[in-house]
Design a protein that fits this description.
The protein is mainly alpha-helical. It has one domain. α1 packs antiparallel against α2, α1 packs parallel to α3 and α2 packs across α3. The termini are far apart.
C-alpha cells in the first residue's frame, strides 16, 4: 500500500478535496461571511478527508501528521479562494469605490483612476 500513497494523496487530497475546499471558500465569500469561518469548515473537511482515505484506500484514520498536512492544504486553498472571491465581489459590486489590485486584493479608487 505505500506505493499507492503519493498518487492517492495527489488525486484525492490535492485535487478532489482541494476543489471542495476551493468551493467552500468561494461560497463563504459569496455570502459575505468572514474569513474566519473558512477555518472550521476546512478542519471538518480534513476529518472527512482522513475518513475517506481510511475507507477507500486503507490508510490510517487516526494519523495526526496526515490530518495536519491535509487540513493545512485544504485551509490554504479555502482561504485563497475566499480572498479571491471577495476581491472580485468588491470590485464588481462597487466599481465606483474600489479598483482591483493584483490577484487577491483591491484598493480604494483614486480620483485619477480611469472609470
Amino acid at each position: 500500500m505505500p506505493d499507492m500513497a503519493w498518487p492517492m494523496f495527489v488525486s484525492f487530497t490535492i485535487l478532489l478535496m482541494g476543489w471542495i475546499a476551493f468551493m467552500t471558500g468561494q461560497t463563504l465569500a459569496a455570502t459575505w461571511r468572514p474569513w474566519g469561518q473558512v477555518v472550521p469548515y476546512t478542519v471538518l473537511l480534513g476529518g472527512v478527508d482522513r475518513f475517506f482515505v481510511y475507507a477507500l484506500f486503507e490508510g490510517q484514520v487516526l494519523s495526526v501528521e496526515g490530518f495536519l498536512i491535509d487540513t493545512l492544504w485544504l485551509m490554504s486553498v479555502g482561504l485563497v479562494a475566499h480572498r479571491r472571491t471577495l476581491a472580485r465581489k468588491m470590485t464588481l459590486q462597487c466599481p465606483w469605490l474600489y479598483v482591483r489590485e493584483g490577484w487577491l486584493g483591491w484598493r480604494e479608487r483614486a480620483p485619477e483612476d480611469p472609470p
